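Fold this complex.
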Amino acid sequence: MSCHFQASPGVDAEMLGTFLLAQTGMRPEGVRRIERWYLDTFDHRLAQAGWAIDADLQSPYPPVVHLRRLGTEQQDQLHGLTSLPKLATDILRPRLRNRLIKMAEGRALLPVSAGHITVHAFDCIDARGKLTARFLIETSSELPASTVLRVQAITGFEPVGQRVIRAARRAGLVKPLREDCSLCWLKALGRAPAQYRPKPIIALRAEQGSARALAKLLRAYTHVMQTNEAGIVADLDSEFLHDYRVALRSIRSWLGDLKSTIAPDLQTRFRAELSALNRATGALRDMDVLGGCLDDYLAACPEVPPAAAAALRQRAQSTREAARAALKTHLLSAEYQAAMQSWGEFLDAFGRGKHAGRRGRSLVLNTVSRALRQRRLAILRFDPVEARHDPETLHELRKDCKKLRYLLEGFQPLYAPEALQRAVRELKTLQSAMGDTWDLHVHHQLLQRLVQGDSSKSGPDPGALQLLKTLGERLGSLERKHVALVDAAFARFRAPRVQRLYARLEENRT
Amino acid sequence: MKVFATYNVKGGVGKTAATVNLAHLASRAGYRCVIWDLDPQGAAGFYFRIEPTATTDPQAFLEKKRGLKAAVHGTNYAGLDLIPADLGHRNLDIALSEFRKPTTRLGKLLSALEDDYDLAFVDCAPHLSLVSENIFEMADWLLVPVIPTPLSVRAYAQLGEFSTAHGLPRAKLLPFFSMVDRRRQLHCELITQFAADHPEVLRSFIPYTSQVEKMGEQRAPVQTFAAGSPGARAFYALWQALCERIGLDDGSHLADDT
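Structure:
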């Protein structure tokens, strides 16, 4: 049975209250005026997973924050908070923290809407003095359904609440809300969930011209970059930068793989500009990824002196801050704004058919299939033995795999979904093995720089040197383990079965 | 989910009062708690104005893993639920003995609530039996109220011997003094002696007070109707001592009215 009800037209909070008080065992529990915030991630992951976070603020008390299943009153209080949680990791209780971490996946919890609400509470008490149901009449001028009745059933005593609601419905006082009250509020603000996708799927047709299809894709991914800019500048969470960089790399990759679709001079110019932007964002991303692993690395080395570990954490934090400040300055600079404006103007013109290259009018399916084949063959040309011993070669291989995946994912509407998903899955396995290995390599270098940066000011600290040695050994052994995984993943990718799958995609025989 | 069982071979030592008050304090500290009333007397349910459920066949009860979820009742306090007693539980021993692994059955039942609660408090009946072995298996800690009298101290010793004989870890035992009357010389002497012999004892005790007895009249945890009384303060001190011992956040940084 629904828990959220809307007052019928002409019925106000007072009429509902009078009705409730006439029910057996009902007693008023007072009136509260609160400010209610709904928290969700930037891309509404909680709502998509069927959950909501309500935060009730009533000065001078700390916020009362509930995690609630949408459309129900099954809730858990996120206790112990003196302010609104910013990240799932701010939640003290492990059970709730883990649940939220799984749903938010590193995304910050942001106030997606707020409003002032007057809550009239009523408790239904039975003859033994047992609370059997709680009713809340909430009124707000900001809500589309201005008077809402919430029924908080007490486990084991659900029929009591149902009986009262049946009577209220028979009297024509309320009707069920079709959606959770938090979603109604979001909709009223024009912020319906699921409007954002870090990898948008653009409707493309096989018989479309390559230039027009590419223009659509570039515009959509540029929009993803722009959407994430504010989050990077405000440093809300590290996923804004991640999504920004994925969109940026995808754009660069398509400009390279489909280069004959665009006029050569513009292609060269924009690739160079976007490459510079990629470098500008790289330092912060590296520190974000290191920050996520540093505690695990240090925990795996209990022999490291605590003072050295604390100094390293501090150094990592300050390096990250410096990288963030530099990126923020860059994103707010006139130079960046001008570059993005110029890119936007190019996209507008490109979409209208200008600046097309020699293959601009070719069918997009043919152009992309050709690019897919070239990229796949480039991957197969890598020598697995060389890639195993040389991290830079491994990195080049990894970049080629990423480019192949961007082609598959960006132009996915052109291919049969099942075959495409299988192809992406095979690629993901290889990418994941290589990504872990490369991260360890980069982290080793970053940690060396951090420790040496510390030593350059005050001479080599024995604790720091020991830390570097221990971490180096640890990361080295992990890297060796991961290289073995890369071997296996690469062998799997080269298997005739997988290659046949790709060949069928390229020839569009799926 | 952490599981606390309030257990003693001896009856009338304040097991149920401790369960109810500690669970209530834990829920106020922000933990989502459930009390499982395994004592067929149903005293924990009585304190929360929840009647025992109709007698169920213990065999059927033990076979349904999800059955425990359906038996949960909400109390008058946010974040605190209760699984009421069942008169059928008096034959739980016989039913348990039918299972291939009879000592882990109750733990398996309780694990169905793993995702819903942070802490579970099990109020046990006073006996040494197959149910006791289940309780030893499923509980992370056994809270053992001990009245400072020779018989009660002897009962604790018996519990220690039982746990050793069955290869159960003694580190799970967390004794604390209950129903203490400090005007009595015997109580004072036994507390000193017991604390010297058993360093695991929680350094906080529950006095014998009328306010704790009035829980039966008020049918509520003592903090709700006599918050400033020595009994209520003693349970709060016990909760803090327990949290300190096992490394739990006691929620003391939260204002009362949040």
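The longest strand of chain B covers residues 173-180.
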